[in-house]
Amino acid sequence: RMMKRQIACRGDINRMNGAFLATYESLIPPEEEKSKQKQLLALLDGIVSKEWPDARLYVYGSCANSFGFSKSDIDICLAIEDANIDKSEVLLKLADMLQSGNLQNVQALTRARVPIVKLMDPETAISCDICVNNVLAVVNTKLLRDYAQIDVRLRQLAFIVKHWAKSRGVNETYQGTLSSYAYVLMCIHFLQQRVPAILPCLQGMEATYCVTVDNIKCAYFDKVEKLYGFGSHNGESLAQLVWAFFNYWAYCHDYANDVISVRSGSTLSKRVKDWTRRIGNDRHLICIEDPFEVSHDLGRVVDKFSIRVLREEFERAAEIMQYAPNPCVKLFEPY
Ligand code: ATP
Ligand code: MG
Fold this sequence. Notes:
By secondary structure, the protein is α+β, with helices and mostly antiparallel strands. It has ten helices and ten strands.
């Protein structure tokens, strides 16, 4: 097993906290964006209900999980009960109706991994992607949002990590690096592991929310208002957590043997999941278990080239957090 390198955090780390908090604040979307999103959603609802009166629109992804930056695109799921529908047909029909409804840049991508219709609303200048019956994404969006309610440091840390990943070009799944969703799960796992823990494991608690989607039972404790103050025994600041997060991924995570698992609130061994060898295109070089679709490794997009890019970026970030005079500037320098 890999040696876990223990290094002490720099003594002046808390001097950086104000800068990290200010960066976080600057990325939060202003209130007026929410009302524009609502306006667009109402417009789309009107168009959709003409053709499918029983269908519903759900916002998922960064606009609903509380990890969205200002000016994010909206991800929308059109949920239609009828099990016999043909998704491509629905998307093509939807694209037609949106076009007649004066929305711009309407495009149906029926062959994508997640088939969608793209559009831009000229009124609000918001772009959005609409998919059909991707209800699992709506449920995992709720899980992320519920975790974010428990301790504000999750949202703060995830904003810094996402901003770092976007600045450094390692938030591009088509280039073999990780999705925003994967980075947020890495942050949740990390805060579950702090001693004392900053986040609980909601899926390990009594289930107060339970739905079955695509034959997958999704159950967890969602009365998060009962968990306010859960992490208050841990006084770590945002800057300390950013330091420790990068230190963990640079020097402490056991890439050869471990899977991170938010579902179980700990790491699992790759052997137990049978993720030890390459199967098809899944190489399992960094393993992040999806909380509900547990056979799904969110690190599957990472290949033997991009794992090096990713690990070098974690090491660069860890070095900056340890030694740079001004880490909150240096960390986000474009690559
Ligand atoms: P960004 O601000 O970068 O747009 P985002 O929160 O919208 O971030 P994405 O990675 O674009 O994150 O994913 C959008 C949503 O799609 C996620 O919140 C999640 O619900 C779902 N999702 C994305 N990737 C996966 C995946 N590999 N497996 C399951 N669900 C996923
Ligand atoms: Mg998105």
